[in-house]
Specification:
Blueprint (H helix, E strand, L loop, with lengths): L6 H16 L10 H12 L5 E7 L4 E7 L7 E6 L5 H18 L6 E5 L9 H17 L2 H7 L8 H11 L3 H11 L3 E8 L2 E7 L1 H5 L31 E5 L9 E7 L6 E7 L6 H4 L13 H8 L2
Parallel strand pairs: 1-3
Antiparallel strand pairs: 2-3, 2-4, 5-6, 5-9, 7-8, 8-9
């Protein structure tokens, strides 16, 4: 049986090549995904390369990987050119390159990435969307470079994470999620709309201490009535910061940093908590809700919001 390439390995292989070519020079970031996709596929898969990367007015989805029409060889990556966010487009391209490297043999006719596919984590299709997101995050935001921007013990503001989003040409949510992967701090990212949590993601340290929200397959969770998330009037022109006592957002006191999305009608809240001892007895029973925004629309949209 042939072992499929993992998204981490695929991203690391490409990252090593880019590091060798650009080092830490000014051209290293953001990654020019369109050029990388064509050059890399032509070099390593010359009989089946990516020959087209193009924007189109695509209905209902952010991007797709398409097999070339009869008589032509290779593949094309299309993205929705009605999208105005450069970060969302860049992540879409990285996501579709991930599909090319990881999934084109499984889906010989190609793939289209829609919003609803990002929340179907119980299906095989949703699993491959997650893999494409993992690849895109690894390619666009290598952890070694990200750690140089924000160290593991540092407490970043949304402006700090926004600077990383600009560096890598991704969305703020994408940058925040990448930071949550390695931070030593207890922190929770919450995306809410109309007074309810859409989805949330916790750092490992937060998860181990019971600081998380379970949203998958459950009734909607209301955001606290005293939170910034229910005060969009405070967030329209600037980011807000508000301390909260215990049993407001979570059992422990926290500091909420929040902003209102300028593209979508939802609020992003980053909750910073003080250190606490792990609640090891809960670790096995707590499964982190898989964040839906690491790919197209529902997925790629929130992950690409920027």
């Amino acid at each position: 049986m042939t072992t499929r390439l993992s998204p981490h390995r695929a991203a690391n292989d490409l990252t090593r090549l880019l590091n060798a070519a650009f080092g830490t020079g000014p051209d290293r970031f953001p990654v020019d995904v369109a050029t990388v996709a064509k050059d890399y596929s032509n070099q390593f898969f010359p009989e089946d390369p990516i020959t087209l990367v193009k924007g189109e007015a695509l209905p209902d989805f952010d991007g797709g990987l398409y097999k070339a029409p009869p008589g032509k060889k290779g593949w094309g990556i299309l993205y929705n050119d009605t999208i105005t966010s450069p970060g969302r487009i860049n992540f879409t391209l990285g996501h579709e390159l991930g599909h090319y490297l990881l999934h084109r043999l499984l889906f010989p006719d190609g793939l289209e990435c829609r919003s609803q596919d990002m929340v179907r984590w119980d299906s095989e299709y949703a699993e491959i969307e997650h893999e494409a997101n993992v690849f895109a995050a690894g390619l666009l935001m290598p952890l070694d470079d990200f750690r140089r921007q924000i160290e593991g013990r540092n407490k970043p503001s949304l402006d700090d994470l926004g600077a990383c989003a600009d560096r890598y040409r991704v969305s703020l949510i994408a940058a925040a999620l990448r930071w949550l992967e390695y931070t030593e701090r207890r922190a929770v990212l919450v995306v809410s709309r109309d007074g309810y949590i859409l989805w949330a993601r916790s750092s490992t340290s937060a998860l181990k201490t019971g600081a998380y929200f379970k949203t998958s397959g459950r009734p909607p969770i209301a955001v606290p009535s005293t939170s910034l998330a229910v005060r969009p009037d405070l967030l329209v022109k600037s980011k807000g910061i508000r301390p909260h006592g215990a049993d407001v957002w979570l059992h422990d006191p926290c500091e909420e940093m929040a902003l209102l999305s300028d593209q979508y009608d939802f609020t992003i809240s980053l909750l910073h908590l003080d250190d606490a001892s792990p609640r090891w007895e809960q670790e096995e029973e707590e499964e982190q809700d898989v964040f839906d925004k690491f790919a197209p629309q529902t997925g790629m949209r929130l992950f690409e919001q920027g």
